[in-house]
Design a protein that fits this description.
561 residues; alpha+beta; 4 domains
């Protein structure tokens, strides 16, 4: 991601609006996060410091974080020194990914002194250090090993900034000096820029190259980027076509053409909230659902294997009629067949009296051979009935497993994952961990939209919600929507038989398509019918229904803005 030294430079400008504020509260939501509540007249903001891998940053945030009941030791230490401390400046050495927050506080002797909270956002060596006025480390979040570390990061050690990479500071160096350094590096221009300049991420270096190819001038492309960096930049979020965040920057990114959607923000902190909230929420959900996904995939693979074996056995049962014919022919020719014979040659009166050779078991009498053929015929008949029922069940299970995986993929909160987990528990796929009597579950929280006529349009987000929406909440004359033969949400237009415009039908159908496995397709078939024609068979899997008297529309999936 593009949280480079240049982006941090612009974040520092935002953080300096908090100068002269006091630290009101301090929290440590997780081992890699610290939140400071800063207050002054007409100003109250939460400052987030995150050292998480792939999400290291410092910013103001509007998000609320759940805090542990017992604060960690490092949090207690920070509270000891910084509670009620006054922020006097925020600085950044060169364009390094280092933020230095200097506070004024009252020390143990009652004197006013300075103390620094240093945030190091350096790849896999992120750290947070509290450094006293004497330049010595009071403590740090991640202590170093004295025998192997490049720097000594321990309480009492003198703090030193990470080693400088001897790159040019683009805010101080001239364009000619930068171009000369890039030329000296040689090779790929983007790599040369990355190796020559502080504060430039690979994304920004590639953008400089892209713009220089368009303009024919590296000087012009560099000036455009540096102008944004020096003059405050423009917070920009790149979104994939499905709306999920891809990357962010402080300057316009043109290198991807129309592959991504561009979205601007009023501040860099708002931009980071939008980017990391979606990213971290998705990761939390994936982590919370990892065991379910593994279980369902294993069950699905097992069911597919069973289905293949049963279909093969079922195919063998298709040609069982010859067993009955053999038995009938042997029975009709008992007087001609000798005991101990290994075969019998008789006329087949089922096929124009053509001669036929029937294999026999010499150890059995002719009558017992006939009985065995009749028994084998009956066995395959019974097997066919059983296998047919089992293959139907296997296919239903595969459809159900697909619907669960689709629900997980579209889940947006941990509560929705908990609903899916409860559904699987009730269906017997997951063992209950709590043997106590379960309280009555609250009504699911459904997605809700409004049609032009003012009708509510409700969308289920998983099988449990689908069942509740269709079989409990919806009236018999409401309209029910679902993508055709594809796992997805049930959608209800709560019209109670009232007039529904074509626009509402298309809107509800588009919602059904967008909340299905076909969300990234086009011209998706969506069936709709009054709820009274939708039935849930006895013993059907959660979310599974049958319906009749339906119509079909073809739509492109979309969600209302």
């Amino acid at each position: 991601m593009a949280f480079d030294g240049g982006f941090l430079h612009l974040i520092i400008d935002e953080l300096n609006t908090a100068v002269d504020s006091h630290v009101d509260k301090i929290y440590q939501p997780s081992k890699d996060e610290l939140v400071l509540l800063l207050r002054k007249k007409s100003f109250a903001k939460r400052l987030l410091i995150s050292l998480k891998a792939g999400a290291a940053r410092i910013q103001f945030t509007d998000n609320k974080y759940e805090n542990p009941a017992v604060p960690p030791m490092f949090c207690m230490l920070i509270r000891k020194y910084l509670s009620a401390a006054r922020l006097i400046r925020v600085t950044q050495p060169r364009l390094e990914r280092l933020a230095v927050l200097t506070f004024s506080y009252t020390n143990e002797m009652g004197d006013i002194s300075e103390i620094r909270l240093i945030v190091e956002l350096l790849g896999n060596k992120t750290n947070l250090l509290l450094v006293g006025a004497d330049g010595r480390i009071i403590d740090c979040l991640r202590r170093s090993d004295p025998e192997t570390a490049d720097r000594l990061l321990l309480p009492g050690a003198e703090y030193e900034y990470p080693a400088n990479q001897s790159k040019l500071n683009p805010l101080e160096a001239g364009i000619n000096e930068i171009c000369a350094a890039v030329k000296l590096q040689g090779g790929d221009t983007a790599k040369a820029l990355l190796n020559s300049l502080d504060g430039f991420s690979p994304l920004v270096c590639r953008e400089v190259c892209f713009k220089s190819e368009l303009s024919g001038s590296l000087d012009s492309a560099l000036n455009n980027i540096l102008s944004d960096l020096k003059n405050g930049g423009s917070p920009l979020l790149l979104l994939r076509q499905d709306g999920t965040p891809y990357d962010f920057s402080y300057t316009d990114i043109s290198q991807y053409g129309g592959e991504f959607i561009k979205k601007g923000f009023d501040s860099f902190s708002y931009l980071l909230d939008a980017f990391y909230t979606a990213k971290e929420s998705s990761e939390r959900i994936k982590k919370a659902a990892a065991d379910i996904i593994k279980l369902i995939n294993n069950l699905r693979a097992r069911t597919e294997k069973k289905l293949a074996i049963r279909l093969n056995d079922l195919k063998k049962c298709e040609n069982r009629e010859h067993l009955r014919i053999y038995g009938e022919l042997i029975k009709a020719n008992l007087y001609r067949i000798e005991n101990g014979a290994s075969f019998a040659e008789v006329e087949n009166y089922y096929d124009e009296m053509k001669p036929i050779r029937i294999p026999l078991n010499p150890a059995l009498s002719p009558q017992n051979n006939a009985a065995k053929y009749f028994k084998d015929y009956k066995k395959t008949y019974t097997a066919e009935q059983t296998l047919t029922a089992l293959t139907v069940k296997d296919k239903e299970e595969l459809v159900y497993f697909d619907s669960v995986l689709d629900s997980i993929a579209r889940s947006e909160t941990l509560a929705e994952i908990a609903e899916i987990r409860e559904e699987l528990s009730l269906a017997g796929y997951i063992k209950r961990t709590d043997s106590r009597k379960k309280k009555t579950a609250a009504a699911p929280k459904l997605k809700e939209y409004v049609s032009d006529e003012g009708y509510k349009i409700l969308v289920g987000k998983n099988n449990r919600q689908n069942d509740y929406l269709t079989t409990v909440l919806a009236a018999k004359n409401d309209l029910w929507f679902h993508v055709k033969n594809i796992p997805g949400s049930h959608v209800i237009v709560m019209c109670k038989g009232g007039p529904v415009s074509d626009e509402t039908v298309l809107k509800a159908a588009a919602l059904a398509a967008a909340n299905s496995k076909a969300a990234k397709s086009s011209q998706v078939p969506v069936d709709y019918t009054p709820v009274k024609y939708v039935k849930k068979p006895n013993g059907a899997k959660p979310g599974m229904v049958i319906y009749t008297t339906n119509k079909t529309v073809f739509v492109t999936p979309s969600l209302p803005e």
